[in-house]
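Exercise: predict the structure of this protein bound to 1,3-dihydroxyacetonephosphate.
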Amino acid sequence: MRVNYVLGNWKLNNQRKDIDDWLEVFKHTAKAGVRVGVSPTLGYLDYMSGKCEGLMVGAQNVSEFDQGAFTGEVSAAMLSDLGVSFCLVGHSERRQFFQETNEKVADKVKGLLSHEIIPVICCGESQVEYETGQAKEVIGAQLSAVFSRLEVSQLSKVVVAYEPVWAIGTGLTATPEVAQEIHQFIRQFAGDFFGSVAAQSLSILYGGSVNEQSAAELFAQPDIDGGLVGGASLKPTSFMQIIEALS
Ligand SMILES: O=C(CO)COP(=O)(O)O
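Solution:
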């Protein structure tokens, strides 16, 4: 049985008052096999930690370096010290605006694993790559940089999030069929590296305009193990409905 996740990515949103208001409304009853978490910005990780029973707190980024003269960075050891459970790596916004390469992503994954933080490895193609039929090739290149540096025993300790760039923040959710086809490809691709049994243990989340209307049908697909939710996770009631859709 794979673990299912619903993770919120708050991106560059939510200050203390917003977090208090969100937590006031958000109610969560733990369900077996389902993990729920949100990732505030770095400055609020400590503020959020331990505020809500059963809610994991995650980071949106981590340095590939452990320590030293790297102004403005935060290490995996520091995230661990703050009680962080998971960390996004290789989000398309970081790849696009902050030069996060496949190699950097792989370094970050290794660092997070050494501190027992779950790396959520984001991958996905751009609109042009989608339209020209290159999605699988792009995703394969993004993932092979990471997979080639993992041991088989580490596959169950990472999560992959498929986030087609054209679906992020656009309201254009991938259809359940399109998303399932890519998720199945990702699982097969993991199987080529680690064997099909290990690949069955890999949780693969879908992200890109997930909302309370689209969640249930997406989550019903056999290779979709939950969601990475941006905009809709800012509204606690929407986020709760999305969690409910995963059953
Ligand atoms: O980037 C995302 C999550 O990481 C998805 O964002 P939206 O749900 O706002 O499209």
